[in-house]
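Q: How would the structure tokens look for this protein?
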Amino acid sequence: FFIVMAELNTLPVVDLSTTSPEEFFMDFVYPRRPCKLIGSLPECSFEKWTLEYLKAKCGDVPVSVEHRETLKHGFGRGRKATMPFEQFASEMQRGNQQLYLTTQTVSTTPTFSMSMLPVLMERLAKDFSMRPSLLQTLIPSNYNLWAGCNESGSTSGLHHDFHDNIYVLIQGRKRFHLFPPSSADNMYVRGAIQKIFHNGRICYEGDNVRADGADAELATAEDEKFAAEQMVAEMEEAVERGDEGADEGLAKAEERLDAALDALLDIEQQLNDDEGSEEDGDGDDDEGPLFQGFEESVAGEQLEHDELGEAKEADAAEEEVKSQSVKDIPCKVEYVDLASFDQLDEKPAPLSFSKIDTTLPREELAKQFPKYLEVEPIICDIVPGEMLFLPASWFHEVFSFGDATKADHQQAGCHVAFNYWFHPPDNTFNPTNTQCSHDQGEGGQVSATPCKTCAKLAYAEPYLSKFWERDWEARVSCDAQEPPIKHAKRTA
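A: Here is the predicted structure in token form.
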């Protein structure tokens, strides 16, 4: 994100038919550069996602819908309610411009750990790849469908997100106003910024996160648990071989693992308590625990160290729950009557949202937000068949429009999009890194531009730890009881 704004008057345009995943990573993900993408993701069938198709697949799914008071207001104000997707889609087709389908909550498995997908996306999972080949080495965080109806354009509000984003336009058109994280001081965000990491990821006061978005304390504790597990496995092998002192070593290893599990459970409980009492500061999604799938795996391992009788009893209860389908567990959904939407309360915007109303006259902006006028946005328009890659914490305001050229008047004002969220890679270009010697000039000067050798190495391992890879594996195991979901083939 250390890029001079003058060099970014327009976004680079990338033809996916002539660009390999490795080239894309090296040219855009590694140096944290946004770009427009032309073409389609080969493992995906988004062209099927007409409103009628979506209604047929997802009609009965409860969805969170945002409401704006009038057409003069933007979205992103927290006025949300739940309705069946079929009702929402029908309102779109009738031309209701006050509703917007935004982020959906990730579903919970019968063992109460986080699943891979919101229920809405579970219904559509056969139509897209969970790990698209374009970004096959990044770890997905969430997936989302966006939809609304607007003839003259609606705005999302100026904000930044905490994850890397591939934004796929399916219907309508979108205009993005973009600013790099280095312009944060000009954006008048609601939170107090504590730090901007080398990969652009913004951290607010009170956060204890790393550049990859993982909770620092939780990640350290999880690393200790993993090391303790390895130690137990090695000591068990030593016992089998009859090595001297192996029994004592195994006892110490199990003691270490017990302590690691206790520490992890304490941290997870604290994180869950914090989430229940505070507004989520993430403007892009609401994912639940920072280490989804963790709670089930830790609880299962803790049982191995409990009294045998208690473990058997707990296992029997767990098996009884697992025998149920997610759909069989009763879930009370409170729908809000459409006529009552005007009475919805507005909630405080997340910390990552700007205080700026960009629709104000320039004279008023100069009075209230003078620093905002010191930077110019990068403007990017996308239409169906195009996508946007946006690294974490790039500020953006999204203007959504329908397609007036459509013959079907029920579709003319509608816009539909899908996006992938990826945990931001932290093995990325760092202009302050003095360890790289690949591109050093005379006198050992470190290059101010991304090193191609480092970028190639980072493509294989974009994260500096295995935290998110383990999280992914835990979440996949949570969904193992469900029908298999199509994945992209991982190529070398």
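Residues 255 and 379 are 57 Å apart (CA to CA).

The radius of gyration is 24 Å.

Upvote if useful.
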